Amino acid sequence: MVKVAVIGAAGRMGSTVCEAVEAAPDLDLVARIEAGDALDPGTLAGADVAVDFTRPEVTEANVHACLDARIHAVVGTTGWGPDALERVGAHARTAGRSVLIAPNFAMSAVLAMRFAAMAAPYFESAEVLEMHHPDKVDAPSGTAAATARGIAAARAEAGMGAMPDATLSDPLGARGARIDGVPVHAVRLRGLTAHEEILLGNPGEQLVIRTDSFDRVSFMPGVLFAVRHVGERPGLTVGLDAAMGLA
Ligand SMILES: NC(=O)C1=CN([C@@H]2O[C@H](COP(=O)(O)OP(=O)(O)OC[C@H]3O[C@@H](n4cnc5c(N)ncnc54)[C@H](O)[C@@H]3O)[C@@H](O)[C@H]2O)C=CC1
Ligand SMILES: O=C(O)C1=N[C@H](C(=O)O)C[C@H](O)C1
Predict the structure, then answer these.
(1) To test the ligand 1 pocket, which listed residue (16, 33, 53) has its Cβ within 8 A of the most ligand atoms?
(2) CA pair distance 100, 66, nearest whole angstrom
(3) Which atom of ligand 2 is nearest to the CA of 138?
(4) 168/205 same-domain check
(5) Which listed ligand is nearest to 107 at the C-alpha?
(6) Is residue 160 marked as binding?
């Protein structure tokens, strides 16, 4: 049995992860940790792996606390920057434990990101549109940021220059955020869960890649895969695709 602690256990994702872990015959939910609880060997209750779905401003400290307690961490919380990833990677290596951070655990989203990177060199233009529930605290989504970075890297590797865009005046930011030169647009709408469209354009044609998570159960197979396999890859792994050998 793999013993699992869930951090952010009362949240939308954390509560769904608790249900999924409890339903899995090979996993044992040993701790539900929430804001205000200490995060130490006592509260982690002998866990082998902690799963963090909290908030961008607390997740790095949570991961360091897990590594100090010598347990692996699976992280779905978004908002990670390169410096925080570097610090956590270094700590994981010195602690001899593993950390897996993925902006999206849904198979449709993981594949959409891969397909977007594959398609990017064949299209002059690419833009990312992410659409989420209005209770989400960060924008753009971690998935959209990762998608844009993947598109930009694929374009750079193919020797492509800037995308065509004649915009000279955009005082209100209507052309969206730029992530490595790729425009990213965020919609927050009651009724939505988590959705993304990647638009790729050429003269006379368009490719649309779309992923929809209608329900948070969509993330659970990926989360449970990560819990079961996180310890197999030493140090820091970013992205479920890398953990699954798709990258
Ligand atoms: N990687 C993925 O597949 C997915 C990632 N997410 C990300 O997961 C994160 C959480 O999303 P939701 O569950 O919708 O948010 P939520 O707001 O429903 O849940 C967050 C929970 O964390 C708790 N929390 C806050 N600070 C804490 C601390 N220091 N220690 C322990 N618990 C703490 C809050 O009280 C709350 O219960 C967000 O960053 C979101 O972008 C969401 C869905 C899928
Ligand atoms: O907050 C959410 O809901 C989601 N957050 C993740 C993100 O920022 O990409 C994953 C998914 O889009 C749902």
Answers:
(1) 53
(2) 12
(3) 8
(4) yes
(5) 1
(6) no
The backbone region for 28, taken as left when phi is positive above 0, alpha when psi lies in -120 to 50, beta otherwise, is beta
Dist. CA 51 → ligand 1 center (Å): 10
User: Does residue 240 contact residue 110 with C-beta atoms inside 8 Å?
Assistant: yes
Note down pLDDT in tens along the chain; length 247 residues.
999 999 999 999 999 999 999 999 999 999 999 999 999 999 999 999 999 999 999 999 999 999 999 999 999 999 999 999 999 999 999 999 999 999 999 999 999 999 999 999 999 999 999 999 999 999 999 999 999 999 999 999 999 999 999 999 999 999 999 999 999 999 999 999 999 999 999 999 999 999 999 999 999 999 999 999 999 999 999 999 999 988 7
CA angle 112, 117, 121 (to 5 degrees): 135
Domain identity same for 77 and 160: no
136 lines ligand 2 (CB under 6 A): yes
**51 shares its domain with 121:** no
Domain with 88 in it: 2-101+216-243
Residue nearest to atom 35 of ligand 1 (CA): 35
Question: DSSP letters along 144-162, please?
Answer: HHHHHHHHHHHHHHTT--P
pTM of the prediction? 0.97
